[in-house]
Amino acid sequence: MAELVDALALGAMQNFAERVKKITGGQHSYLAEVKIDGLSLSLVFRNHRFLYAATRGNGEIGENVTDNVLAIQSLKNLRRQKFPVKNFELRGEVYLTQKNFQILNQKIQDAQTVELFSNPRNLASGSLRQLNAKITEKRNLSLGFSEKFPNYALAFKFTEKMVETRIRNIFPTVGRTGKITYNATLDKVFLDGSMIGAATLHNADYIQKLDIRLGDMVMIKKAGNVIPKIVK
């Protein structure tokens, strides 16, 4: 299964355009669309029936996630269906909507059982790889299908915005399992559409690594465009 090359700056897009121009002689057009950022998945069908589901893995060998895929609400009846085409493969992305991601992370935060997921992709990926398919079923995953043409396609990723603010307090939170996580209260600052007054510090090792102290001026960003995080 192929993978799109990421472009993190305009220069990479310009280089891509030059390569395409050389290949086509200038006889081409472009199509831009929002890319779903999830976990790549292949659904394999043989003799008109669904056979198995696998992740991309290293591009040639992936992880068999058939049981968990069949726990996704929209795919529960795959085994019962007969398809008009005898042998084929569907490739797409397993993903969580931002709404469902925020709902699940809020439940995790309320329960204080595990560390919050930093973005929808990580949560979708972890959900699909669960040993217990019943957990996958509860995660409200979606499957979006798309075609990929690595020689003629590029994924442009926007740079995450960062702003500066001051740390006012650092405090620990003890979860039900006894795990301690740290958070910081900040001078409120506007970042990417919302006012931010707190951010995660994960654990003591993370605090020591960044040498974070009360009163420090720090840079924060929204990890996965959702969770405020101190980065330096």
UniProtKB/TrEMBL annotation:
Q: Name the InterPro entries for this protein.
A: DNAligase_adenylation, DNAligase_N, NA-bd_OB-fold, NAD_DNA_ligase_OB
Q: Where is the NAD-dependent DNA ligase N-terminal domain?
A: 1-232
Its Enzyme Commission number(s) read 6.5.1.2
User: Would I find NAD among this entry's keywords?
Assistant: yes
Under the heading Pfam families, the entry gives: DNA_ligase_aden, OB_DNA_ligase
**Which GO BP terms sit in this record?**
DNA repair; DNA replication
Record keywords? DNA replication, Ligase, NAD
Superkingdom of the source species: Eukaryota
Do the record's keywords include Translocase?
Answer: no
Protein name, per record: DNA ligase (NAD(+))
**Species in which this protein is naturally found:** Acanthaster planci
Please name the taxonomic classification of the source.
Answer: Eukaryota, Metazoa, Echinodermata, Eleutherozoa, Asterozoa
